Amino acid sequence: MRYRNLTILTLLTLLLVSVAPITAQDAAECEDGFRLFEHEMLATDPVCVPENPQRVVALDPFAYELLILNDTPPVGAIGYLEPVYRNSFPYLAEEVAAIEYVGFPANVEAILALNPDLIIGSFLDEGLITQLAEIAPVVSYSTVGSGDWKRPMQMVGDLLGVSELVDDLFAQYETRLADLRATVEDPSGIEVSIIRIQPDRIMLNLVNSFPAVVVTDAGFGRPESQAYSEEEAMEVYGGAVGAFISIEEIQLADGDYIFGWSNQADAEGNADADANWQAVQSSPLWTTLTAAQNETAYRVDGHWLGWGIFAAHGIIDDLFTYIAGADPAEVSPNPFLTDDETEGEVTPEATEEASD
Asked: Is residue 100 located within the same domain as residue 188?
């Protein structure tokens, strides 16, 4: 299985004749330099992938993050990752800026020009997979919500041959969670409400959302309105990740602490969300909430939207600050930040040292 440099014209010609994507089903075994990759999360048949990929295009956040952390950044990435990581994680600015972005949706010709030897993506449609498979092996997978972030991280770690790095990252995560629990008396008795502020409405973050998983991992409780099991949430709200509520239903957002976040696609959307947040807080109904009365309702940044290890540590930082009343840099430093400032260089060495 050898991948040639294809001209754009050649690629388009091949697509017109519907040549099938190169997957493991085309051969009983992989050629030298490739190995068969199988996983329950794959959206395709098992795929022959390079044993030591050098030019990876990341159309998903987990490959993007792990390649950066391994000091082997992707040669290209899906476009929506650039503003998210640039805005939410300024300490990654240099790494983010050095990567080529291939648009959103992904532009096949832009990917072809990067001459990748492996393409990794989540929720890729079948037609795009077929096109991309003419360029390089494609590993496509799907998750079951933003709260399902640990499995794909482990899967991509295995795919890229960096499973030990993933183990270290999870060990760091668990250590900081333990440090946080040690600073808070009876965290399970503290109800943490999580809401997403949108331009025209409010969304409760339910059990299968990313921030809910991190908060639960930290040992905190959730309000009854947000503590349903996944099956119960589907019955009550019609979804397990989020539920939209009106201002008349704002009591469903109450808790000992409320963390509200917003992450819109553009500046106008963010401005509208800001205005909505002000309107919600100006409502007489808001003043009936426990968190409003105790002044424990906080507006937090867009990393609460997240899906990976950088965002998880950002949430832990906020939990230290607002619930534990402690400076995380003194109690349990974020491994991706330097000791004396909020922005720093991410290196494998720093990651390993923080887990020792």
From this structure: no
